[in-house]
Amino acid sequence: MIVTYRTQRKVRFQHCDPAAIVFFPRYFEMINSVVEDWFEDEVGASFNQLHMERRTGVPTARIATDFTAPSRLGDRLDFELTVDAVGGASLTITITATCAGELRLRSTSTLVYVDMNTGKPMPWPEDFRQRFEPEHNTGKPA
Amino acid sequence: MIVTYRTQRKVRFQHCDPAAIVFFPRYFEMINSVVEDWFEDEVGASFNQLHMERRTGVPTARIATDFTAPSRLGDRLDFELTVDAVGGASLTITITATCAGELRLRSTSTLVYVDMNTGKPMPWPEDFRQRFEPEHNTGKPA
Amino acid sequence: MIVTYRTQRKVRFQHCDPAAIVFFPRYFEMINSVVEDWFEDEVGASFNQLHMERRTGVPTARIATDFTAPSRLGDRLDFELTVDAVGGASLTITITATCAGELRLRSTSTLVYVDMNTGKPMPWPEDFRQRFEPEHNTGKPA
Amino acid sequence: MIVTYRTQRKVRFQHCDPAAIVFFPRYFEMINSVVEDWFEDEVGASFNQLHMERRTGVPTARIATDFTAPSRLGDRLDFELTVDAVGGASLTITITATCAGELRLRSTSTLVYVDMNTGKPMPWPEDFRQRFEPEHNTGKPA
């Protein structure tokens, strides 16, 4: 599976702790914003459309992250998102952030597509699924 | 190893997203605050003492979290922290949050004790180590 | 008008910037949390009841804040909330934070009671209004 | 005085509250980030240079904000920063945010240039001052 999405984030004052490095919860805001931009730019629905119009959500069920080197105020982080596996209502992705080629974090998370009114998982729409699996869109759940 | 620390957090407006459930990066702020209180209440150094007086830090090197059920505005979360393993400069802990007995998250993280000036790992002070391993204080690295 | 509510907040790692003092947007999270606790403890409706059950909200229409001295990691802040004025659908309050008697901030804000579905202002419920103006209802100052 | 700086921000999931509108403390993160970009792009020092290299800071001493209309998930906000007055060690600016021409907020704040080691105010460097007052660079403090 070779879906890759790239975007950049600047390490801002608001991200940094008293050691002047990124406070790790702020990385998760960045990671969420990368998923948000990917949905809007590539998957085909903005988070406003997902949440407000379709009344669906993509909560994170599991996320595991290695922080391999600290990031400092002013650093430009190159984020890369790759799809690992697509299930009936789930999606597993890996996001990395590097700065000038140095790996800063690698995070693998599983999102679930849910009906916001009931909180229950629901199948991915077919057009989303096609964007998740561009190469071999076999509908085979991972 | 049976070090356990318990504390409570209220799910506040600032933690909640447009679905009125906790936005997952906010959980990591709560998790960090639990570690902060544990250091102050049990380990023997507040984060102010750690960072400002000793010029040390405890950055998170790895964290893996399962979110098993959503938390809603106003929920009281019971957090429980357990020490899993103590290394020369590292510490692995598991934190759970439950609400009225229902598991909301289970998170395992590895912290590293570092010199804030150099960013290099350094051995845990002996008094910290004793608080991490109260039962069998053998100094045996995990 | 003599409604006063008091509560305390600890300056946490998550509040502090690379200068190891509170980053000012974090003060507004604390201020909001003070209003939230005041509603739950004294006014008679938690934010969950307000937002989820009554489908109302209390957005901030205006807030002016003087930051008179910096707050540092580990400081205990004493917050005090006083009602300045009550309008048909609005409420003006002043919140101060002090640490060991030193004023850290003084903030005056105007909240508006709104219907969350329409976003339109609506009159305060009579029981709320009585808690805002205790001395010309029951006369008993809180 | 006619210094104006413009930039845009997208209203993200992380900014929104259970009413699906921007939670007001998040606006202050956006406002701070606008000042940060202005310093880097126009004034001539990034926040990293200011804080880490020069060991100076620009804490906010006072900020007053009117929130005139709510902003929703996905809105594109046009921020505009104007210099109101320059003092020896202070700077008063007004920032507005509009969306499709509708005013969302107007915020006036006073920043102070401080030595991070002592926390004391210090005079603006001459090159900064010139960028604050491009039209009539008289050095006359406001």
From TrEMBL, chains A, B, C, D:
InterPro entries to which the protein is assigned, alphabetical: 4-hydroxybenzoyl-CoA_TE (IPR050563), HotDog_dom_sf (IPR029069)
Give the top-rank taxon of the lineage listed in the UniProt record for this protein: Bacteria
Q: Which CDD domains match?
A: 4HBT
Q: Which Pfam families match?
A: 4HBT_2
Q: What are the recorded GO MF terms, alphabetically?
A: fatty acyl-CoA hydrolase activity
Q: What is this protein called?
A: 4-hydroxybenzoyl-CoA thioesterase
Organism of derivation? Saccharospirillum salsuginis
